[in-house]
């Protein structure tokens, strides 16, 4: 399952970037990094791309369904991540593009799940499963509407969100190829079963009584190569 390295890389990139944005402290090594303030903006490419630190208690791209369903979202994310891991194992012999897509989606799901599960405890502002997701990638592509909300910029997101989007995009682009490969494997498996069945039928037809092909000679051969049927009894 080397494809899991893709998921692992997504999680590491996502969490390291979030920790540097939010800040961290390691008293043992006397290390304190302040990070960004909530709402702070740092221009990277003018106004087109900037780092904007926000936290949302809900879903991807800053969508907030309300704190009353926060626990259910976190639990759903947890079981969805487990399901994706199991599915990735089941398709371990499928096409590389399909495995890459699921690996990206799994990495993104786990990245945001860590925020929801542990950030409230780590940063001491909420109990388990009630943490907020850290978003900071801010692009000015075009105006969009998302879940009934209008944005004058693209919704602020993180690397986990990007990984999920990339995985879904791969699934869409290679959808026909995935279906074709699945059909091919199904046909090949059917042909193998049919071939094995035909071999069994042929064996039964050639030897209906189950007799052995090995002949047994109850007599003994003499020195002349003739069969010795036993001693002749004199009259």
Explain this structure.
It is built from five helices and nine strands. With 235 residues, it is α+β, with helices and mostly antiparallel strands. It has one domain (4-182). The chain has a three-stranded antiparallel sheet. The protein has a two-stranded antiparallel ribbon with strand order 1-2.
Give a topology summary:
Blueprint: H1 4-22, E1 24-26, E2 31-33, E3 41-45, E4 49-56, H2 70-90, H3 96-122, E5 133-139, E6 144-146, E7 149-151, H4 159-173, H5 175-206, E8 220-221, E9 227-228
Antiparallel strand pairs: 1-2, 3-4, 4-5, 6-7, 8-9
Helix pairs in contact: 1-3, 2-3, 3-4
Tell me the overall shape: elongated
Distance between the termini: 85 Å
Count the beta strands: 9
Order of helices and strands: HEEEEHHEEEHHEE
Question: What topology, given as strand order, has the largest sheet?
Answer: 3-4-5
Helical element count?
5
What's the gyration radius in Å?
Answer: 33 Å
Task: Give a quick set of tags describing it.
alpha+beta; single chain; 235 residues
